[in-house]
Protein: Alginate export domain-containing protein
Organism: Gallaecimonas xiamenensis 3-C-1
Amino acid sequence: MLLVSLLLAAQSLSTPALTKLRQDEDWSAWCADKPQGYPFKCLRPTADSLLSLGGEVRYRYEFTDDPVWGGEPQDEHGVFTQRYVGFADWHLGSRWRLFGQVTSAIADGRAGGPSIPDQNRLSVQQTFVQYGAKDYRLTLGRQELNLGSGRLLDVREGPNVRRRFDAGVVNGQLGNWHWQGLVARPWRFKTGSFDDRVDHSQGLWGFYGTTCAPLSGNLDLYYFGYRNEHARYAQGQGVELRHTLGTRLFGDQGPWSWNWEFIYQFGRFDGGDIGAWSLASDTRYRFGAPFAPELGLSANVASGDKNPNDHKLGSFNALFPRGNYFSEMALLGPRNFYNLHPYLGLNLTPALVLTTELDFYWRLEKGDGIYGPAGQLLRPAYSPGSRYVGTEFAANVTWTPRRGHVLTAIYGHSFPGPALGDAKDEDFLELTWQYRF
């Protein structure tokens, strides 16, 4: 019996990981060695091709008491969302590849009907062709994108509808550098079937490189260009052309791990100049004690606009960030803020993790507003004149009973501060089952 357990453990260690972007999974080596292990991953339409099939099912229930601090309609019985994903990954020899993915995202119970992040009944989420040579790889078509920590470019896993782009992407290796260049346009979603459209009012282009850091860990250097024909800030609305330069240091050494990032932005908005910046840090220490407790502190700041009447925009733009930037409650976005976010994680068993956290949040400039996770303006500049936005508490239990299955329970409470004016406390409950195969 012990021998069987050891063999199963060894087999699971060599199985390709289920990745955030499913196109990053590569079953070629596995199928060459164990073609019967996962039959739907090792199909052979022709002698020199490999077809892998997979997908996902996600069910989520969430209930929010006094949504957005009482500013949005109350969902009487909560919201139930469903997400179904199917994909096919076809490797044609050693160089060519076709990838297609279909997604259905459905929501019920939202007051006023389903919103765009909740529902997209049926759509082709990804369809691209890829050509790979020795030192580079070219990908053209509709695809999900995710770079670095997701602070600027993320697939947006938290909401029911994930983000996608029409893009051309080149990946390569040059010495110790892994680099990626891209040109992309986001999609504008609707809630029906096959009714989405490419958003021609926005464009993204850039370059991202990763190498080993001089002392320890890894180093990222990147540039993004971004254009938005209909940008909106507390200062007003207009055409935005923004350039972003950034660097990230991340890694681990002994019990310590770190993820620090500095970003500077410049450009033009509605005839005026842009000057913005952000500093983000996440530092953790893992104790050699029962339950392997991990204590962490995330400290972050992003610039705001000091004077909405001077035609100089100081508001930071996080471009296409993850939806739950600060917490699963997803109330606030990374613009004109500073926060302190301590948290504690406990590994109760190898499959069961408990995380508790606090988030203290302020706005940086009174002359700028308070923004939501999608960049929407929640409170205007100077109103009501305080910097302190509020405090959030959350507890998260994650259980991974076996490969592909994840069950999550989250409770959160938001205590609004004086910067929000007449606002109510908000309670949040989320229960999720996700199966990926």
